[in-house]
Write a structure and sequence with these properties.
The complex is a heterodimer. Chain A is α/β, with parallel strands linked by helices. Chain A has helices spanning 6-20, 44-48, 60-72, 91-98, 101-104, 134-138, 151-163, 213-226, 244-254, 269-281, 303-309, 313-324, and strands at residues 2-5, 24-28, 53-55, 76-81, 114-119, 144-146, 168-173, 180-183, 197-200, 205-209, 231-235, 238-240, 257-264, 290-294. Chain A has a 7-stranded mixed sheet, with helices on both faces. In chain A, helix 8 (213-226) crosses helix 12 and helix 9 (244-254) crosses helix 10. Chain A is globular, with a radius of gyration of 19 Å. In chain A, 57% of the residues are buried. By secondary structure, chain B is of the alpha/beta class. Chain B starts with 6 loop residues before the first helix and ends in a 20-residue tail after the last helix. The chains are: A alpha/beta, B alpha/beta. The interface between A and B is large, with 37 and 45 residues. Bound molecules: thiamine diphosphate. Thiamine diphosphate sits between chains B (67-68, 116-119, 146-149, 176, 178-180, 241, 245) and A (29, 58, 60, 82, 86, 89).
Chain lengths: 325, 323
């Protein structure tokens, strides 16, 4: 084990995978000499050279379309999109290109690329630099979506994402980069895609959370424990493919579900999880599934407004209590 | 000389440039004290462009700005006080604290927005020019954008349509030598990005962006042309970003000798020298002091203003998902 920051864990994953496999290369804005605005790629251009760690112009649309064909033709590109808010610029490449070829060409090509980006509010970065657009990418067939909440998962999931033969959108969170945690050592320690993790065991209510909301949910579970309520927190971490078994197992035990996601409510990721729970666990539920999300509005800049709209432990506690009432 | 600013206009440009510089320096100082929130993109060294390029516009003309828009806001006629209040998230800000410093707008002044999606302001301004043409208004639209933004795909699409339809728009390229941290030669194989204008059949001119009179003349000529219905034009203003990308910039990529060389050509100094014979140094110093006092007062007032209170769907019913 080594104590690492989330950003360092990502950096280690990139370094190890680039060392292991010469077809892995990185490109993105300000990732080379500067090491990325969140310093995830620090030192990698020095180590691997410009050919494999490229600074790009501000050209997200072309970059993503290029990642698709670069992946189809023998490389494993890892593309950094500086903010999740810029993912709308990548959408044609994801929706109309990356998601279709493996199927329509009957398996003639593979699409092993990773689109790393970071989202989330709470930093005063305002309406165009704070969003969580998980559902926008999770909606696209053929694209996997992961969102690690700890340094260990950041490393293990990124390594798996790079080795995966399908496109993976890798969602980081700006407020997690400085979080420290123990990370298992070893080049081949992977965290598999498609597996949720049990962040806290409980028996009364299941809280299904993503990314930074896992930590808010853990705080909420603490507060609920003081009220004598035992909350289980499941870190979904692989947003797609979804670990349905983990969800079913937890609900079979608690009979109550709360879904927490920082994205918008309407047609959001939490809505999908809620519907999935209805499809598969209806008979196990004692109450309707509760959602704790961003209201359907732009993220305001001013601190009291931003704090009011973001989901947090307090809202998770309230939703859990309502579910159990 | 044709399109030169009058002395009064020049004095006003000088005054506003000082307002902007003082605003930037105050923000820098408050950032150091931990009193700002989120990243702030200062435009020290680029005041001449934002202020002089917008000086000949009316309130009915539209300007689209960037994440580095303070000089554009002040140039387009916003008072400094609501801008400061916005930057500090107060209810009294130009957008009641909802927007923050990158996204300030005052529609009544034709400032329809800072924009923090790089490149997005280029088609946005082109769309405003389109509506002017559709409605037969003689207003023009101006897009102020950076050398980084010039590399976006949407820039090409917008400029092609602007020229194709002879839209009343002026593209003002603030070439400050950097994208976020990468220098321009890591973003484009050409030095003078305005040579691309020829590819759209659009006139262009390169000017010293630290010289407010030169900026005014070049932009003024393009604005007149656009207003006459002769189509778009581009002005590439060469300048330098003195204070790094933003307050979260970790530095290490701008050369000290470059910064020193550009500081020696500070636009405030150039503006002063251009006016001192005509106006007198004392009068200019007084104007400068008044600008500084105005900004000081704006900060004092804004920082004691109340924060907004949250109500769900407060901006408008447009965001309500269920009726
Ligand atoms: C679509 C998009 N990509 C990336 C960014 C991140 N970003 C913000 S400003 C910037 C550099 C912009 O360079 P330029 O247009 O030259 O303006 P400057 O900051 O130099 O004033 C970048 C890459 C963004 N805001 N939007």
């Amino acid at each position: 084990m080594a104590l690492m920051r989330y950003a360092e864990a990502l950096n280690a994953a990139l370094r190890e995978e680039m060392t292991r496999d010469p077809s892995v290369f990185l490109f993105g804005e300000d990732i080379g000499r500067y090491g990325g605005v969140f310093k995830v790629t620090r030192g990698l251009q020095e180590e691997f050279g410009f050919n494999r760690v490229r600074d790009t112009p501000i050209s997200e649309q072309a970059m993503t379309a290029m990642a698709v064909t670069a992946a189809m033709t023998g490389t494993r590109p890892v593309l950094e999109i500086m903010y999740a808010d810029f993912m709308p610029l990548t959408l044609d490449a994801l929706v109309n290109q990356a998601s279709i070829y493996e199927y329509i060409w009957n398996g003639q090509v593979k699409m092993p690329f990773v689109l790393r980006t970071q989202g989330g509010g709470g930093a005063g970065a305002a309406a165009q630099h704070s969003k969580s657009l998980d559902s926008m990418v999770a909606h696209i067939p053929g694209i996997k979506v992961v969102a690690p909440s700890t340094p260990a998962d950041a490393k293990g999931l990124l390594k798996s994402a790079i080795r995966d033969d399908q496109p993976v959108v890798f969602l980081e969170h700006k407020l997690l980069y400085n979080m420290r945690g123990e990370v298992p050592e070893g080049d081949d320690v992977l965290v598999p895609l498609g597996a949720a993790s049990l962040a806290r065991e409980g028996t009364d209510v299941s809280i299904f959370a993503t990314s930074r909301m896992v930590h808010e949910s853990l705080k909420a579970a603490e507060a609920l424990a003081e009220k004598g309520i035992s909350a289980e927190v499941i870190d979904l971490r692989s947003l797609k493919p979804l670990d349905l078994n983990a969800i079913k197992k937890s609900i079979a035990k608690t009979n109550n579900a709360v879904v927490v996601n920082e994205g918008w409510n309407f047609c959001g990721y939490a809505a999908e999880i809620s519907a999935t729970i209805m499809d598969h666990c209806f008979d196990d539920l004692d109450a309707p599934v509760a959602r704790v999300t961003m209201p359907d509005m732009p993220i305001p800049y001013s601190e009291p407004l931003e704090m009011a709209v973001l989901p947090n432990a307090e809202k998770i506690v309230a939703a859990s209590l309502q579910t159990l009432a | 000389m044709k399109n030169s600013p009058s002395i009064d206009e020049q004095i006003e440009i000088f005054r506003k440039m000082h307002v902007v510089r003082q605003l930037e320096e105050k923000l820098g100082a408050l950032h150091k004290e931990g009193k700002t929130r989120g990243p702030i993109h200062r435009c020290d060294g680029q005041e001449a462009i934002g202020v002089a390029a917008t000086a000949m516009l009316d309130d009915t003309d539209y300007v689209m700005s960037t994440h580095r828009g303070h000089a554009h806001y002040i140039g387009k006629g916003l008072d400094v006080y609501p801008v400061v209040a916005e930057i500090f998230g107060r209810e009294t800000g130009s957008c009641a604290g909802r927007a923050g410093h990158m996204l300030v707008a005052d529609a009544s002044k034709g400032m329809i927005g800072g924009n923090a999606i790089v490149g997005a302001s280029i088609p946005a301004a082109t769309g405003a020019a389109l509506s002017n043409q559709v409605l037969g208004r003689d207003a023009v639209s101006m897009c102020i954008f950076g050398d980084g933004a010039a590399q976006t795909g949407i820039c090409h699409e917008a400029m092609n349509m602007a020229a194709l339809w002879k839209l009343p728009i002026v593209f003002v390229l603030e070439h400050n030598q950097f994208g976020l941290t990468v220098d321009t030669d890591m973003q484009s194989p050409i030095d003078d990005l305005s040579i691309r204008a020829a590819g759209y059949g659009m006139p262009s001119e390169i000017v010293d962006g630290n010289d407010p009179v030169a900026v005014y003349r070049a932009v003024g000529a393009m604005v007149e042309r656009a207003r006459r219905g002769e189509g778009p034009g581009m002005v590439e203003a060469k300048t330098y970003r003195l204070e790094g990308f933003s307050t979260s910039d970790m530095g290490g990529y701008q050369k000290d000798e470059d910064i020193a060389a550009w500081k020696a050509r500070d636009p405030l100094k150039i503006a002063f020298d251009q006016l001192k014979a005509e106006v007198g140094e004392d009068k200019l110093k007084t104007i400068e002091a008044e600008a500084v006092a105005e900004v000081e007062a704006a900060f004092e007032k804004a920082l004691s203003d109340p924060f907004p209170e949250f109500e769900l769907f407060d901006a408008s019913a447009a965001y309500s998902e269920v009726v």
